[in-house]
Amino acid sequence: MKKSALQIARTSYEPKIPKILKGVVEIQENKIAKLNSDQIEIKKLFPNTYGLPVLQFVEGIKKHTHYSDPINVGVILSGGQAPGGHNVIAGLFDSIKSINSSSRLYGFLMGPDGLINHKYKELTKNIIDEYRNVGGFDIIGSGRTKLESKEQFDEGLKILKKLNIKGLVIVGGDDSNTNACVLAEYYKQISANIQVIGCPKTIDGDLKNEMIETSFGFDTACKVYSEMIGNIQKDCNSSRKYWHFIKLMGRSASHIALECALQVQPNICIISEEVMAKNQSLDDIVQNITDIIIKRANKGYNFGTILIPEGLIEFIPTIKVLINELNEYLTHHEVEFKCIEFSKQRDHIINNLSKKNSAIYKNLPETLSRQLILDRDPHGNIQVSLIETEKLLVEMTKERLIKMAKSGEYTGKFTALTHFFGYEGRCAYPSNYDSNYCYSLGYVAAKLINNKKTGYMSAIFNTTAPTSEWIAGGIPITTMMNMERRHGEMKPVIKKALVKLDGAPFQLFISQRDKWAISTNYIYPGPIQYFGPSEICDQPPKTLQIEKGEIR
Ligand code: FBP
């Protein structure tokens, strides 16, 4: 396979790891500061993995390990791609080899399916070396199958036993780490002697809490999108004739939109969590957009940029209630609904929803109403990447501006272009931050297995400090769980971290946004740099730095 110059250069980059991981470590057990709600139910569902302490690796005097024999480990990449996944695997590989050079690493192919269907490959040094610091999940592929039934767990166990695997690492987002915890609990309950460790992945940035600073891939994806938005801003400030409506990935929370807004200073950035808190309707959102377009037009600026979080539609309170009813209806009438002709599906839904939701659904633009009944993902989530919110907002804005032009309230010129940035960033070459972070996460996962831990998520903290000072450990997954309604049933799931409206990043954004809206204050971040001065190449995400009070 022909390689680009950067690919060659990146595969030989040596990720920096925390100093603590280089020497002899011992494990310190710390108490959990704060627990989520629903603890009684979680305790009942996870009797074997509930109530574990938070772990931190500290300098040790003597080797504190349980396996001196070779240790075989399996790995699964689950869910959407995120830059750095290959480095988790590389860190895992190097770590088990450092324990015993005869240890083996097996990758299950195409996500959890590989475990259930016994499709795997051994990851040898030659294979690993090809993928170091390179984006994508193609070393073993990824998938979204939900690991949830006893039959799946038992099938998995057969192959894990056959390969003499002691530990399984599941690299995934909130749903996949929830599955990792369920699997850990089951294997513990049946004394299978297999440990399960999760790894926090998702570009969406919504797998974070007091103990997980960020999910991997968020940094790189936001840097890629910010570069592209910056380029668009340069273009629109040059030609001064287009409004760019840019939808950004982030299935639920608006972390990506907020991070990009802080990096590029657009004219408008919608934050879904604010829309929900203010109980805004689709019309309110369009009203805000048109107000700014008119103000800019009055200054002669018939151009601008608008960032739209992918998950917006689910945060508009009335639509959220409608989606909940649609989810329940489609779960319980899946077979019947699939038999209905496409042209009749919309009317069928209108006739089967409650009166209030039926009226809301009927009044939605037809394209949106059809997109809301598309297939859910295996975890029961609506696939918001298929909903064209950016186009919907352009249409509604245009309609309103035409009306206002007729009444003489608007005299500007409105030409809009739409973009959706999501897949463009998910497989980018990981930034140095993600390369180092992911390699360390993988390295730690192996150490947790080596110390007989199960039901933990591999964790690295203090990541805005120089890498050598990063702190490493493990977080019990059950501490992140609460009960939520999924597929019409209450299930234990890891709580998604939404943008905190009282948090420093959002507060900084709102203190600046009126200025950014009317005048033109664009920032052009440029492409990710991999080689060069540290202040250009090694910057952590801006939101994280603001959260820690390092940027005000
Ligand atoms: P994960 O939560 O699995 O990391 O995936 C996140 C994401 O990239 C979302 O931002 C997006 O809505 C979704 O995946 C798209 O899913 P798919 O890859 O199945 O099209």
Overview of the molecule:
The protein is α/β, with parallel strands linked by helices. The chain has three domains: 255 residues, Rossmann fold, CATH 3.40.50; 182 residues, Phosphofructokinase domain (Rossmann fold), CATH 3.40.50.460; 75 residues, Arc Repressor Mutant, subunit A, CATH 1.10.10.480. It has 23 helices and 15 strands. The strands form three sheets. Strands 1-2-13-12-7-6-3-4-5 form a nine-stranded mixed sheet, with helices on both faces. The protein has a four-stranded parallel sheet with strand order 9-10-8-11, with helices on both faces. Strands 14-15 form a two-stranded antiparallel sheet. The two termini are 47 Å apart. The mean pLDDT is 93. 1,6-di-O-phosphono-beta-D-fructofuranose (FBP) binds next to loops.
Largest sheet composition: 9 strands, mixed
- Given as residue ranges, the uncertain stretches (5+ residues, pLDDT < 50) are none
Helix percent reads: 40-55%
* Number of separate strands: 15
List the bound ligands. Answer: 1,6-di-O-phosphono-beta-D-fructofuranose
User: What is the helix tally?
Assistant: 23
Q: Compute the number of structural domains.
A: 3
Strand composition percent: 15-25%
Mean pLDDT: 93
At CATH level 2, the architecture of the largest domain is 3-Layer(aba) Sandwich
What is the third-level CATH name, the topology of the largest domain? Rossmann fold
Distance between the amino and carboxyl termini:
47 Å
